[in-house]
């Protein structure tokens, strides 16, 4: 028996599906339409992983269900997901307004409060952004109900993506069906939901999360780790052999084994030397080709996590790549090839979901990724010296702008360009 992947069918629906699958009308209709038979992935109903699969897991090639819990038990995958989610959470996300040629922070707008001060009554901005980013990474979608207030949206209440289903009607209008823990299904309009999608989508409506697109790699990594744990648990790794020149009786073998394990097995006996008697020799076993192959397989699966998430390998704690002066390039790589797509997803979702048509002409949200690229104090000092400029060298910043970047208070003279200070034009 098996269950169709991605569907939960009632008994009547399952019977209709079987009848249709076996009917000649189905084959004739599909042949006339030029279609091929529809293929499904299946999960064995007797498999131990079936409960996890039914709770929202994803089946992969070997039939193992990949769940959020099992995926995050992989240290490399957890590091990648946590790094992206926490980085998005800690970066300042500001609302700006354009007034002619000037751009100012729109700290009086209600959306500013949602992004920088209080998204809801139980989460800080860091917690809200980290949670939403984690849901979008793993599940492909993050949803929040826009709680209405006097001045528009007064709070963003996160929803479990496993309980939300976007529905596109025949008239191409989108709706969101939400199944709460208690009560019937609630139907929301697109204007009532803040929907953050993953960059990759297979249907143009929902994003595809890592639990889906990387299920094969995550499942294989899980099986590889379990195989290594099983070998250790069952004692398949043999340390060596005690070789005697003569044959020993069964009683002597048992006594020798007991004495050896009592004196030399365990962490408290590590490093003790063996005293061999009557010509007995101790021959330890070295690492085998299978051991090396297992280690290489686990390393390969860790590298697969880097490919799926876009996080540079050194930031996943691979130690074979030197850090040194390349730390700044790693930060640039992380921002450019991993975080920028998410920055764009957040900024466009905020514009489409939290701003009106008229406001989008002048208001926009923007991450301050410069917080990741500041470098050392020496590098910052050299940058600001060139940015501010001086006598004979015009810069592109005024002192107060540089002071703001360093979280310092403005000075009365700080709005005058450095090259003008001390002159009659100042």
Summarize the structure.
With 426 residues, the protein is of the alpha+beta class.
- Overall 3D form: flat
Largest sheet, in brief, is:
3 strands, antiparallel
DSSP strand tally: 17
Mean pLDDT: 76
Radius of gyration: 31 Å
Structural domain count: 4
State the end-to-end distance.
84 Å
Description:
This protein has 426 residues and is of the alpha+beta class. Residues 1-14 and 20-43 have low confidence and may be disordered. The protein has helices spanning 11-22, 24-32, 50-54, 68-72, 75-90, 110-116, 125-139, 210-213, 215-233, 250-264, 289-309, 327-354, 377-388, 399-405, and strands at 2-4, 42-44, 58-59, 65-66, 93-99, 102-105, 141-149, 152-159, 164-168, 174-178, 186-188, 193-197, 240-243, 281-284, 363-367, 389-390, 393-394. The protein folds into four domains: 1-65, no CATH class; 73-238 and 288-373, no CATH class; 240-284; 376-426, no CATH class. It starts with a strand and ends in a 21-residue tail after the last helix. A hairpin with a 5-residue loop joins strand 3 (58-59) and strand 4.
Q: What is the strand and helix layout of this fold?
A:
Blueprint: E1 2-4, H1 11-22, H2 24-32, E2 42-44, H3 50-54, E3 58-59, E4 65-66, H4 68-72, H5 75-90, E5 93-99, E6 102-105, H6 110-116, H7 125-139, E7 141-149, E8 152-159, E9 164-168, E10 174-178, E11 186-188, E12 193-197, H8 210-213, H9 215-233, E13 240-243, H10 250-264, E14 281-284, H11 289-309, H12 327-354, E15 363-367, H13 377-388, E16 389-390, E17 393-394, H14 399-405
Antiparallel strand pairs: 1-2, 3-4, 5-6, 5-15, 7-8, 7-12, 9-10, 10-11, 13-14, 16-17
